[in-house]
Amino acid sequence: MPPRSGLRGFLRAWLMKREHRAGFAVIFGAPNAGKSTLLNRILGEKVAAVASKPQTTRHRILGVLTRPGAQLVFFDTPGYHVSEKLLNQGIVSRALAALADADAVLFLADGTRRGAEHEAALKLVQAKERGKVVCAVSKADLVDAKEIEGARAELAGAMPGAPVLAVSAKTGLNLNKIVGLLADRLPPGPALYPEDELTDQPMRLIAAEFVRESVIRLTRDEIPYSVAVTVDRFEEPGEGSRRKTFVSATIHVEKENQKTIVIGAGGRKLQAIGTKARESIERLVGGPVYLELFVRTTRDWTKDKSRIQDFGYRDPSWSQPRPWSGRPKRRAAVDVMLSRSVWVPYGLVRGNCEVKGGERRAVYGVMMIRCQRHQLGIWREAAFWMVNLWSVAFFTDVVMSTFSPVTDCSVWR
Fold first, then answer.
1. Residue 54's closest CA among 78, 77, 90?
2. Which of 150, 161, 190, 322 shows its CA 20 to 30 Å from the CA of 355?
3. Distance CA 363, CA 251 (A)
C-alpha cells in the first residue's frame, strides 16, 4: 500500500489529468418529490424553501457545487403539473425552460407515491437524450426495500439505459454517486462560477422564499397557494450604523379572511412566522437579522396576469412584446397611462441621433422609471422615453420609431 502522502499525490495528479467538466444539471419531477430538500443536502446549505405541501418551489433556484474536476450548476425546478390557473402556468414554464437548457437531468420520482403528475413529468424526460438523464427514487428512508426496488424497476423500464438509484436527502444515501453520474454527463469546460459561490439568487429573493416557506408551514387550507412575498428593504450590516441585517417584507394574500389567518389572534401567528423565517435567514447570512413583516390583501392576484408578473412568477410567453403595426401611437400612450404601473420622472436626457436620411440631430427627452403601485419606491424596471422636440404632444411621436439608436447619452437629475 503506498504511503499516505504518495496516495494524495497520485490522486491530485489523476484529477489534474482528468478533463474539467462544467454545466447545468436540472432536478426535475412531479410536485413534492423532494427536489428542494435534495438540493439543500447536496449543497450543504439551505438555498431553497422546503415544505411538506406541493408546489412550494415557485422559482428556478440555482445552486453551485464545485468539486475537483467538475462544477455542477444545479437548477431546482418547480414540480411539473398541468393546470389551467395562470399562476401555475407561469411556475411550470420555468421548469420547462430549465429542462430545455439542461446539460444533465436528474429525474426524481417520489418513493412514497407516484400518480398522474409523475407520469406527465416522466414523458417529458423521456424525450431527452438518454445519455443525459440520471433517475433516482427519493425518500428511500420512508419506505421498505421491496417498494424501492419496485419503483427502481419501473423507472428502469421507462428509461432504458439510464442509471436508476435510490436516494435519501435525510440519510445521504447515494448522493455522492448521483453527483458523480451527473458530473460525467456534463460537457468539458472551465468553471462557470467562482469556487466559493453557492447560488446566484439575490439575498432578497431567498429571504422572500424563506418567509413564504414559514407561512406555508404554519398555515392551512388554501393559504399556502394564495401567498406571495415581496421584500421591500434589505440592508446589510455596515450600511450606516446598522449592526444587524435589516429585512422588511410584505406577505400578500388574496382575501381579507386569509389576512386574518396569517396575522392570528393578537398577532401571534405572524410573530411565529417571523421567528421561523428569521432563523433561516440568519443561517444564510451568518449573523443576526431584524425581520419586519407586513400583511396586505392583494385581491385575486393569482388570477391577474400583471400581478403575477409583478411578483416574479412570469411565464416567458407573456413577456412577448405586443405588435405595434396598425395601432395609433396615441392609443399606445393611453395604454401606458392606464396600466397598473406608475411612471415617475427620473431626469432629463440629451443624446445624439441619426435622422432617417443621414442627418444627425440632438434629441432631448425625459427618463421615466416604472414603479409598481403596491410598492412605491421600489424601481422594477427602467425605460427611456426619447421625445422629438418638434412633436406637438409628448406621447404622439416617440423618437424610438423615428430615429436610429441614440448615442452619447447623458442624464441630469
1. 78
2. 322
3. 44
List of E strands, 241-313: 245-253, 289-297
- Residues ≥6 apart with Cβ < 8 Å to 119: none
User: Tell me, what's the pLDDT at 380?
Assistant: 36
Long-range CB contact pairs, 113-116, < 8 A, 24+:
114/30, 114/151, 114/154, 115/30
From 250, 260, 224, 234, select the one nearest 311 (Cα to Cα).
250
pLDDT confidence of residue 164: 96
Confidence of residue 48 (pLDDT cuts 50, 70, 90): confident
Per the listing, cell 427611456 goes with: 384
Tell me whether residue 80 is exposed, middle or buried, using C-beta atoms within 10 angstroms of its C-beta: 0 to 12, 13 to 18, 19 or more.
buried
pLDDT in tens, 159-177: 999 999 999 999 999 999 9
Q: Which amino acid is at 113?
A: R
CB 89 within 8 A of CB 121: no
Residue with cell 425581520: 291
Q: Is the pLDDT of residue 255 over 80?
A: yes
Give the dihedral sign, CA 137/139/141/146.
negative
Backbone angles phi, psi at 174, to 5 degrees: 60, 15
d(CA 293, CA 251): 7
Please check the confidence at residue 265 and state whether its pLDDT lies above 70: yes
Q: Which domains does the chain have, with CATH numbers?
A: 4-184 (3.40.50.300), 203-306 (3.30.300.20), 321-412 (no CATH)
Q: 3-class SS at 378?
A: coil
pLDDT of the residue at 239 = 59
pLDDT of res. 11: 55
Give the closest residue to 63 by CA, choosing from 101, 30, 27, 34.
27
Asked whether the beta carbons of 60 and 90 are under 8 A apart, the reply is: no
Phi/psi region, residue 165 (left: phi>0; alpha: psi -120 to 50; beta: rest), is beta
Does residue 107 contact residue 117 with C-beta atoms inside 8 Å? no
What pLDDT is attached to residue 272? 95
* Tens-digit pLDDT profile for residues 13-28: 555 556 899 999 999 9
Residue of 304, 212, 219 lying closest to 254 (CA atoms): 304
State the pLDDT confidence band at 341, using cuts at 50, 70 and 90: very low
